[in-house]
Known about the structure:
- By secondary structure, this protein is mainly alpha-helical.
- The chain is built from 20 helices and five strands.
- It has one domain (17-413): P-loop containing nucleotide triphosphate hydrolases (Rossmann fold), CATH 3.40.50.
- It has helices spanning 17-31, 41-52, 63-75, 81-107, 130-137, 148-152, 167-182, 186-189, 201-204, 212-216, 220-226, 232-246, 266-272, 285-303, 309-333, 344-349, 351-362, 370-380, 400-406, 408-413; strands at residues 120-124, 143-144, 254-258, 277-282, 339-343.
- It has a five-stranded parallel beta sheet with strand order 2-3-1-4-5.
- Helix 12 (232-246) packs across helix 13 (266-272).
- The model is unreliable at 1-7 (pLDDT under 50).
Amino acid sequence: MTKASYSLTFEDPYRPLWLRGINWAGKTLKQNGIGLVNLSEESLLSTASRKTGLSDWGDESFRLPLRMLLKSLEEDAELSLFGRYFLRKLCIQLLTNRLRIQEDIKRYPEIQKVAIARPLFILGMPRAGTTLLHNLLAQDPKSRWLHLWEMVSPSPPPEYHNRYRDPRIHKVEKLVQRYNTLAPQLATVHNLNPHGPEECNPLFEHEFASLIFEIRANVKSYATWMETYDMLKAYQFYRQQLQLLAWHYPPESHWVFKAPAHIFYLDTLMKVFPDACIVQTHRDPLKVLPSVCSLTAIVRSIYSDRIEPKTLGNYWSDRIAKALKREMQVRDSETSSRFYDVHYHHLVQDPIGTVRQIYAYFGYDFHPQMAENIKTWLAQNPQHKHGVHRYSLEQFGLAPERVNHQFAQYCERFNIKRE
Length: 419
């Protein structure tokens, strides 16, 4: 069966024949009471420790979110056999990274003196232009941003002179190829580029407190618990990881970070980064929600054979509406000059002008080469370069009237243009 001949739906997505065979075997074994992949906390921790020869986890605040995640994966996620195997491998990698990061910080205490001065954070609803803006701002030759390869394996700290030849790059290229094989539609929605800028969610995974887990699997009880979880330790460890990644790099004018998930914890972000400059992108929720639901359905198909589009619609509509309400309350308590708002249609119509306005607003130096770099990047990365992402409100049971009601305060406050 080829990809071309296979009917692609969210409920029954394309999978290679070998993957279907593995998952079928997993169902058969489960029916007979046989489990093959251990996702227990003890097994994961001991495997990572044995693999590295290390046992110092640093602050053990990560254990509670890890425990809640594993509980939800067992009780809520309905993982396939391959999904369990892939997530076990991922968790061991994250724990291995954490042990090695802690060892680096302990061995080289000067890492914690590295300055992260006036960083620029891009946040907003998922699928609201954050990725586009991040790529544009990364065209500043003096800015520093996170590469996918260095977040997948932060330790040892990357060297500036080896940033294009680090052996970790090839490993992540192979990882991206694997993801694209497992979910061929993924590149259309969110193209993973080992060399380009990537959002900083992967660093939060080392604390097991990241929105990515909600994209990967139905971890409803974990997500509900995370809504009230104090993220201070997670953001502090995130900052330490940034210091580690910056240690062997020359000091740049500023860092450029991007993650829609920051809208969920804006108060904590600003506590840990008191001089942060915040850019928030805005777009019509009726366009954003089915897009994020589609992304979630595609990614979850790697880990589970059960995808419920209408459940996703309600989930993300409620989750993002609550996050924006919380984010607006935080903004009301902060100095307004720390925020700059970018509307999606303005960004698309005038990308260079939008970037100039952001730089002028926050007082960053606009490098002479930046405009040309942006033009080159836009020419090389036209919209729909990796295919057209097709989705609709109806696929995910999203009623426009309900969505408009949920997001009425947000749309009124930021004068959202309907698309």
